[in-house]
Write a structure and sequence with these properties.
The structure holds three protein chains of three kinds. Chain A is an alpha/beta fold. Chain A contains 18 helices and 21 strands. In chain A, β6, α3 and β7 form a beta-alpha-beta unit. In chain A, α3 crosses α13 and α9 packs parallel to α12. The longest helix of chain A has 18 residues. Chain B has a single domain, classed as Barwin-like endoglucanases (Beta Barrel). Chain B has five helices and six strands. The longest helix of chain B has 9 residues. Chain B starts with a strand and ends in a 5-residue tail after the last helix. Chain C has two domains: 104 residues, Urease, subunit C, domain 1 (Roll), CATH 2.30.40.10; 358 residues, TIM Barrel, CATH 3.20.20. Chain C has 17 helices and 28 strands. In chain C, α4 packs antiparallel against α5, α4 crosses α7 and α9 runs parallel beside α11. Classes of the chains: A alpha/beta, B alpha/beta, C alpha/beta. Chains in contact: A-B, A-C. The interface between A and B is large, with 68 and 55 residues. β8 of chain A pairs parallel with β20 of chain C. The complex binds iron/sulfur cluster and zinc ion. Iron/sulfur cluster binds next to α1 of chain A. The site of iron/sulfur cluster has 13 residues of chain A, from α1.
Chain lengths: 439, 135, 571
């Protein structure tokens, strides 16, 4: 006999689909099939049952091999490392629950850590821009129910957020959008003819690195001012035409991604995209939203914000005050300047996603990585502590890209004896207390 | 003399990279999805290579061997793409201009054929850079 | 649990009509008891020369949830000079106008507050609100879900379906662990989803063909149909605009049509919030003037209304409201950064930083209006002090607002030293008022009054035996009252003692215990309602972006719940 778990939340991307249906074996141990998820989501759920999963902590030996250790030993080593270090980079958090983050922050505050999440290499630029100019935005349901002009700028949901287009932004029929895709005009601005561009009614090919100029041209056109013949490779006639179409819509929305945050200009690219959105509100209703990547990177920003007032790169190393200064307290900068003396990675893989110079720096310091699976970070760490998969083997709160919180569901049991993030962090926290009390 | 060309590099997500990641960072799926460089056929011609040959890609911070493939999502000549992952990050400049955000998109790389050079596995790419022993 | 006896203090308790008499207060098992009921081992606290009141109750503040948190993170500058670890059992406390959850809990406690009502919870974001409430130490909290622009409500009330409205309210309170019915800019926020607004109570809402007046009246009727502990809690249309007092009076008059019906001792059918923002005369910001007198003449005459002030504190702050169009408008006035979120089927929110400057006449007039409202209030049991935190100023400024209300000298000093003092005096009536709020009146305005308005007067807001042992002791000697406003400010900023549930949580301004905060919510039983069930299923299937199965707030988000259960199944 099998059973079906409904309304399951997919813990992969910021789309945070909550309609996945999973068939599990009677003993709650195995996932048998996955419905409604995209290819990535399905792979994530199916991965739990793969053979060869590491289920106990592993400590690196002098010869470079890993040896299994007990959770208690792992907790002790981690706590000692944290207590002994003056400044520990505690990076990741994007694939764990808000409840786990809370415990982590308590540890960070005691031991003087710097808590950073993967916004730092993803939508950090967007957060900086929003701190500069604010942002008019909305929930994804608003887009589904009202939007008739949708722009994808420097983002590629067809690959990074596969169900975004069908759930919210292109195809769904909503309350005021009964015609679905037919009632919407879709634009895609990118330097590549992406699979998202294929779904769009209009593809605007911008020269790589010229997004700022093109956005500026849109603003200029919206004000009826004069443009040069082409901007960023786009003819001015096209720009004027699109701006008029946007003004003629009832409800427009811009989705943007790393095509803006990762290119030269960084936060300024977002800044001007937001400024354009603000301008458009003088003519019609317009919103803008960042396509957040990891399923709970938004949640990490939220918890850090309500506890310390900053969305990422929170420096608690003085223990008496929280500081935040991008370029100074951000992970990549801390690492390339060798300003931390220990690394604590959780629920994200900087080994794979940080530029190599920062990874090399990390590999030279005492490092622990907490992650359900083997990845590039675990392999350069002194200690790998595997944990249950949040959103699959244990529940916990996550925030969608529009900041809507959704409690993820436990679908199957974790392998026997495996700890969850919350359990592990609580143990580390207690051990830190003991060690610090003894000091 | 081997030919060299200079292209503008971007590193982006792809669905195959996403699926590969979830299949496991040590899986063949991940390797196939990420240890590649997508280039315009014209640029391959300039470089004098066929598709599916290995090339060495070098930036201001390092170099890496990956397989040159035709783009699935069309690129203009002069632009090239390695999906995000350890291979791409061997050459991404870490400097952040005080934003915290490295330059993942829009940096110059030099490309030369490396037909007989092997492509390192995901883990080895990182270990090799960190000076850790490779199996 | 430990026993205490607080001796020799001066007690101010409108519940028992005690006006500063010396009376011993005994505590046992988290409750106030007769002095004879505690054993000889009860710890004795000497409160000689001090003022004792019940724990204060915040009736309207934005302290937890999506827009509060957006305000925090999109304003890093709010922490630059304000992030500290203070002595005591505390975490790092940050933020001036929008404090972090830790600072929020500690600062309320240090001021003698034991309860705070989060004033606007978008149901879709209820889980976020409760996550923050969970992390806020010491104080009890509750949250009001917003209803005034909700599609279900608009559709039911278009057809005057009160019973369906009530059943839907009951369902939402249960799903969101909510406390009551909040209305923000009725109809106007839905209009804002198209970039429009409703500026009078008769402007039709686009598409839904209903007016704000119909929404407010219908929600009041549904509220009384259910017999909820609190009345409808309303932020009216046309907030912040010169001449809006007419819309305000129109809205307040709607309360004449409905009678209170509940088992909680509540007499009002409408709580009108941050009235200061709604009491403006004039046609433009150039000739804006106070209409506090006109508004208060009406409020004083209608016992079915309670209100809070929304006092401007003359600080740099962060405005935030579910009144989306207002924030857009404000941004066009001050050109600072603007944050907006429209929430599907339910509401919206906007945030704009704002600097209330004593040198700007409009701000000084706003300051005066807030004080006038409280000083004109005949019944302190119906007038509550707020700053609509953080909209008119941070709640941490309550002690200063109290000093302006309690000391005419301090108030007039401030008034007379404004840059444009003559103009302010001319446009307001504050200079003509010499009333000073007494400690007894203050206890009504901050304890007994809000408790009654919230339907919590059985257990909270007073010091009668049997009530919850939430007690604040201040370093104020009623026999030798402070002569300077700043002495009041100092005393109200840092309690000598704060008891929460019979435990000492703050001593001499230092947090010594994080207590065990509780989340209050209202669980109403209604008759099964097929129509509402059908509509819920349909709306989630077609229009929401989350499934119905993922909408509710799981129980473990609020580990200590104080559930007020009531039966509204009408035969
Ligand atoms: S779109 Fe994202 S959240 Fe939805 S199923 Fe795919 S990976 Fe999961
Ligand atoms: Zn308010």
């Amino acid at each position: 006999m099998t059973k079906v778990v409904k309304d399951v939340i997919c813990p992969f991307c910021g789309t945070l689909c909550d309609d996945v249906e999973i068939t599990v074996s009677d003993d709650n141990k195995k996932i048998i099939s996955v419905r409604n998820a995209c290819a990535i989501g399905a792979e994530k759920f199916n991965h739990t049952s793969l053979p060869g999963r590491v289920t106990r902590p592993r400590m690196r030996q002098p010869d470079g091999t890993f040896k299994e250790v007990s959770y208690d030993e792992a907790v002790d080593w981690t706590a000692k490392t944290l207590v002994n270090a003056r400044k520990t980079l505690m990076y990741g958090w994007a694939s764990t629950s808000c409840q786990a983050m809370s415990v982590g922050h308590e540890i960070a505050e005691k031991i003087g850590g710097i808590v950073d999440n993967c916004a730092t290499v993803c939508h950090g630029s967007s957060l900086i821009a929003i701190q500069d100019v604010g942002v008019p935005s909305c929930t994804l349901g608003e887009v589904k129910n009202r939007a008739d002009r949708v722009i994808f700028w420097g983002c590629n949901p067809a690959h990074a957020h596969p169900r975004h287009m069908s759930r919210y932004s292109i195809f769904p029929r909503g309350f005021f959008t009964v015609k679905g895709h037919k009632g919407r005009k879709i634009y895609c601005v990118d330097c590549r003819y992406t699979d998202t561009a294929r779904c769009a009614d209009e593809f605007i090919q911008v020269q790589q690195g010229y997004d700022y100029e093109l956005l500026n041209a849109f603003r200029t056109a919206a004000r009826g001012e004069v443009l040069p013949d082409t901007v960023g490779g786009v003819p001015k006639e096209k720009i004027y035409e699109i701006v008029e179409e946007l003004k003629g819509g009832r409800f427009g929305v811009i989705f943007f991604g790393m095509g803006l945050t990762h290119t030269m200009g960084r936060n300024h690219n977002i800044d001007i995209a937001i400024a354009l959105t603000r301008d458009m509100n003088d003519f019609t209703k317009f919103n803008i939203m960042a396509m957040r990547g990891h399923w709970n990177v938004t949640g990490s920003g939220q918890v850090l914000a309500w506890q310390y007032g900053f969305p990422y790169a929170v420096d608690l190393s003085r223990r008496t005050k929280a500081r935040y200064q991008t370029g100074e307290t951000t992970s990549v900068d801390l690492l390339i300047r060798n300003e931390v003396d220990a690394c604590f990675n959780i629920a994200t893989d900087p080994g794979a996603h940080f530029p190599i110079d920062s990874v090399v720096s990390m590999s030279k310091k005492p490092t622990v990585t907490i992650d359900p699976h083997i990845n590039m970070s675990t392999e350069i760490s002194d200690l790998h502590i595997p944990v249950a998969m949040v959103g699959v083997e244990v529940g916990g709160c996550a925030y969608r890209m529009d900041n809507v919180p959704i409690e993820t569901r436990k679908v199957v049991d974790p392998p026997d004896g495996m700890l969850t993030d919350v359990e592990l962090l609580t143990k580390i926290n207690e051990r830190v207390d003991e060690l610090m009390g003894a000091k | 003399m081997t030919k060299k060309i200079t292209l503008n590099m971007i590193t982006c997500r792809s669905i195959f990279q996403g699926v590969g990641m979830e299949a496991g960072k040590t899986s063949q799926k991940y390797f196939n999805a990420c240890s590649i460089i997508e280039m315009h056929p014209e640029d391959m011609k300039k470089l004098g290579i066929w598709k599916n040959t290995n090339v060495r890609v070098s930036s201001s911070v390092g170099s890496i061997v990956v397989k040159a493939v035709e783009p699935r999502e069309l690129l203009v000549p002069g632009l090239c793409h390695i999906p995000m992952g350890p291979w791409a990050n061997r050459i991404v400049p870490a400097y952040t201009f005080s934003t915290g955000e490295p330059c993942f998109k829009g940096f110059d790389v030099e490309i030369e054929p490396a037909i007989n050079e092997p492509i390192l596995s995901a883990i080895d790419v990182v270990k090799d850079a960190c000076g850790l022993p490779i199996k | 649990m430990s026993e205490y006896i607080i001796k020799n203090g001066h007690v101010f308790d409108p519940v028992q009509k005690i006006k500063g008499d010396k009376k011993d207060i005994a505590i046992k098992d988290g409750k106030i008891v007769e002095a004879s009921e505690v054993s000889s081992s009860a710890k004795s606290i000497n409160a000689k020369g001090k003022t004792i009141m019940a724990g204060a109750m915040e009736i309207h503040a934005h302290v937890a949830g999506p827009k509060v948190n957006a305000g925090r993170w999109f304003r890093p500058e709010d922490k630059i000079f304000d992030s500290h670890k203070k002595p005591g059992m505390t975490r790092i406390e940050g933020g001036k106008s929008i404090p972090t959850v830790f600072k929020t809990g500690y600062e309320y406690a240090r001021m003698g507050y034991t309860f705070a009502m989060e004033a606007a919870m978008p149901p879709l974001y209820a889980r976020h609100v409760h996550e923050e409430i969970h992390d806020t130490p010491i104080i009890d909290e509750a949250a009001l879900p917003v209803f005034g622009n909700n599609w279900f409500i608009l559709e039911y009330l278009k057809n005057r379906e009160i019973e369906n409205t009530a059943a839907y309210i009951a369902w939402i309170l249960n799903q969101t662990k909510g406390y009551g019915v909040k209305i923000v800019n009725p109809g106007g926020t839905e209009a804002w989803a198209w970039g429009l607004n409703c500026l009078t109570i008769n402007d039709p809402v686009p598409y839904f063909e209903i007016t704000p007046a119909e929404i407010v009246t219908g929600l009041m009727e549904a509220n009384e149909y259910l017999g909820l502990p609190h009345s409808v809690h309303i932020h009216q249309n046309d907030l912040g605009n010169p001449g809006n007092y007419k819309v305000t009076l129109d809205t307040l008059r709607l309360a004449e049509k409905v009678k209170p019906k509940n088992d909680f001792g509540r007499d009002q059918v409408m709580h009108s919030t941050h009235l200061q923002f709604h009491a403006y005369g004039g046609e433009s910001f150039a000739n804006i003037e106070s209409k506090a007198k006109e508004v208060m003449d009406y409020v004083n005459s209608n016992e079915a209304i309670t209100f809070d002030t929304g006092n401007v504190t003359l600080d740099e702050t962060t405005t935030m409201t579910a009144d989306g169009p207002f924030e857009h408008h404000l941004c066009s006035l001050n050109h600072l950064k603007w944050f907006n979120v429209d929430v599907e089927l339910e509401t919206a929110a906007g945030i704009v930083p704002y600097v209330y400057s004593p040198n700007v006449s409009v701000n000084a007039i706003q300051w005066a209006i807030g004080l006038e409202l409280a000083l004109y209030a005949k019944d302190p049991m119906r007038c509550f002090i707020t700053t609509d935190h953080p909209n008119a100023g941070p709640f941490t400024r309550y002690p200063r607002v109290m000093s302006w209300l309690m000391c005419a000298k301090t108030r007039n000093e401030r008034l007379n030293t404004f840059k444009n003092a003559d103009k302010i005096i001319d446009r307001t009536t504050l200079a003509e008022i010499d009333r000073e709020i007494s400690l007894y009146e203050l206890a009504a305005m901050t304890r007994a009054g809000p408790a009654k308005s919230l339907g919590l007067s059985k257990d909270f807001g007073g010091l009668k035996p049997g009530m919850n042992a939430d007690i604040a002791i201040y370093n104020i000697n009623p026999e030798k009252l402070p002569t300077k406003g700043e002495d009041y400010e100092k005393a109200f900023s840092n309690v000598a003692y704060l008891f929460k549930d019979g435990k000492i949580c703050v001593k001499d301004g230092t947090v010594v215990d994080n207590g065990q905060k509780k989340t209050f919510w209202v669980d109403v039983k209604v008759n099964p309602n097929k129509q509402v069930r059908h509509d819920v299923v349909e709306k989630f299937l077609k229009y929401y972006s989350v499934n119905e199965g993922n909408y509710s707030v799981p129980d473990d988000y609020a580990p200590h719940q104080h559930i007020i259960s009531l039966d509204a199944t009408h035969a």
